[in-house]
Write a sequence for this structure.
């Protein structure tokens, strides 16, 4: 079967690393196959000896002892080839999984926008399992069947009859041709089955995560119908593989049976003519029996190798992805940042054919200042901080930290010096203590509690039955929106970076809690740069400068108090409206 070399590129170095173990396993497997060949010979000697009355009890016992010794060698050998080959396959699977995960961590945000979770999960499950089968059991069956077939045919030719052996090759030749086309077909169908499995996994994951929304809108039946459609697609794709495999089995057994028929008819004919002894006939049929397993194993190996190659092809779709966000070949020597940020004439578009998400933005932040970024939904606030974190690269203009172009700063240095609280406030399925200390794994319990107090969530945590050891559900589902936000803030404060970015991080807390957190931020962030994205004017009351965006453009930028004094200014208008709303709420 034709195999694209590119599909095996990621696997080749891993196999080479374990080449010695594979070699030892294959040598052991060869020894087992070779020793197995003597059993039919010994059986033939016993048959001829007994027929000719040339063997006594001692002779029979001696031959039986040889057979037993062969069995012992085969037993020990089978253990060791399993240890070397199957063990290496398991190690390669683990290393390949590590490589794949490490690759996913380097991919840009764009990749995750274009690929679903279920698809990515299928790489780590079914695809890697298929690859392991191809480099483990398939290697054994392929090598074993090939070597055993060659050795058996050689013994058949040298010990029994060349002519009779050639007759038995006819069904095997038919099997080889049929196996080629079967392998090509099974590879295509397996790839489609894996895609259907990924769609099913993604739908289940998404539906379970959005279970509360489904129930809230009474859409259980609609979701079930959609699931049945996805599930049916998976069933059809799987059946396409199973049907082909099921058709191959009977054909394979038919060819095996045909080989037996050839052996019995032709062998019996030559025995009756006297060209073969009865012992040769018995030995020949035992050799044919030895060929049954290689012929059956060939079908299994074709299936496993085809599925493994299909799985590798899918894995290479990930491995071939290139991240646009990489370190400069000649980065500046930067070990830390002070918090000085300069954005000059910066524009950015998510795609070339789309309008700018940000256009001609200019901002200057000195260490210790707090910048507030405000604007309507879709104004470009989150895009701005994503560019500051270098999730994307700017299209025009530039961003610099401490005078260094952001592209010249090593990524790990940039990220180590920025603490970020995103809008979604993602929490892991771990304890609250582990979630808060995620950015500082060696943090003491005292440091964790101090950060929690500064984020005004300590009292909530100690009220939980297990306190800081309380397990957080998937994505923080067991916590309220405000608790998740404050836990994320605590995580960022514990990191204590020179730059802190809060992306609408106080939207789910009440005004009193917000005020407490802002006062704590003012205290603990002295001398450090803070960027706050907010919709409420009260959130940015302590900001040194305010940047107001609208449709990706800067409509106002200046000191907080100066913007408030602008009579018809955008920021002043927002402040007046929100003050009026607050007064109306207080009156109610």
């Amino acid at each position: 079967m034709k195999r694209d070399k590119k599909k095996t590129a990621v696997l080749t170095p891993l196999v080479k690393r374990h080449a010695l173990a594979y070699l030892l396993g294959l040598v052991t497997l060869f020894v087992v196959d070779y020793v197995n060949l003597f059993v039919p010979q010994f059986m033939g000697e016993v048959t001829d000896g007994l027929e000719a009355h040339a063997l006594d009890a001692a002779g029979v016992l001696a031959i039986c002892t040889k057979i037993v010794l062969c069995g012992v060698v085969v037993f020990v050998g089978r253990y060791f080839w399993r240890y070397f080959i199957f063990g290496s396959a398991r190690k390669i699977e683990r290393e390949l999984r590590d490589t794949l995960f490490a690759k996913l961590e380097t991919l840009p945000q764009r990749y995750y926008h274009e690929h679903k979770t279920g698809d990515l999960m299928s790489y780590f499950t079914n695809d890697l399992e298929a690859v392991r089968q191809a480099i483990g059991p398939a290697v054994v069956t392929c090598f074993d069947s090939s070597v055993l077939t060659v050795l058996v045919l050689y013994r058949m030719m040298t010990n029994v009859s060349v002519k009779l052996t050639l007759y038995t090759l006819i069904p095997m030749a038919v099997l080889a041709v049929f196996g080629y086309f079967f392998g090509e077909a099974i590879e295509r169908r397996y790839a489609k089955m894996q895609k259907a499995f990924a769609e099913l996994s993604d739908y289940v994951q998404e539906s379970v995560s959005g279970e509360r929304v489904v129930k809230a809108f009474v859409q259980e039946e609609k979701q079930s119908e959609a699931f049945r459609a996805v599930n049916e697609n998976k069933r059809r794709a799987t059946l396409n593989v199973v049907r082909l495999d099921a058709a191959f089995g009977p054909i394979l057994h038919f060819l095996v049976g045909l080989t037996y028929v050839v052996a019995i008819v032709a062998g019996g004919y030559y025995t009756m003519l006297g060209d073969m002894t009865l012992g040769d006939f018995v030995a020949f049929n035992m050799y044919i029996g030895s060929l049954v397993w290689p012929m059956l194993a060939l079908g299994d190996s074709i299936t496993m190798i085809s599925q493994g190659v299909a799985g590798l092809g899918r894995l290479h779709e990930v491995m071939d992805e290139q991240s646009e966000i990489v370190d400069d070949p000649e980065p500046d020597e930067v070990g830390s940042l002070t918090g000085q940020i300069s954005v000059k004439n910066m524009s950015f578009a998510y795609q070339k054919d789309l309008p700018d998400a940000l256009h001609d933005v200019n901002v200057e932040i000195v260490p210790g200042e707090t910048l507030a970024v405000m604007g309507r939904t879709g104004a470009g606030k989150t895009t701005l901080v994503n560019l500051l974190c270098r999730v994307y690269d700017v299209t025009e203009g530039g961003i610099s930290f401490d005078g260094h172009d952001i592209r010249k700063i090593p990524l790990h240095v940039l990220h180590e010096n920025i603490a970020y609280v995103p809008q979604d406030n993602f929490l892991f399925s771990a304890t609250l203590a582990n979630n808060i200390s995620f950015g500082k794994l060696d943090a003491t319990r005292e440091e964790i509690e101090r950060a929690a107090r500064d984020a005004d969530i300590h009292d909530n945590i100690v009220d939980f039955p297990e306190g800081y050891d309380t397990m957080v559900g998937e994505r923080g589902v067991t916590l309220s929106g405000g608790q998740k936000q404050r836990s994320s803030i605590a995580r960022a404060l514990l990191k204590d970076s020179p730059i802190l970015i809060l992306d609408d991080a106080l939207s789910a807390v009440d005004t009193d809690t917000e005020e407490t957190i802002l006062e704590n931020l003012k205290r603990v962030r002295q001398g450090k740069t803070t960027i706050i994205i907010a919709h409420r004017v009260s959130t940015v009351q302590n900001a040194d400068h305010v940047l107001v965006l609208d449709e990706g453009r800067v409509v106002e930028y200046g000191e907080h108090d100066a913007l408030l004094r602008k009579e018809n200014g955008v920021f002043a208008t927002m402040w007046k409206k929100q003050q009026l709303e607050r007064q109306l709420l207080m009156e109610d």
User: Anything to note?
Assistant: The chain has a mean pLDDT of 81. The two ends are 78 Å apart (CA to CA). Residues 368 and 526 are 6 Å apart (CA to CA).
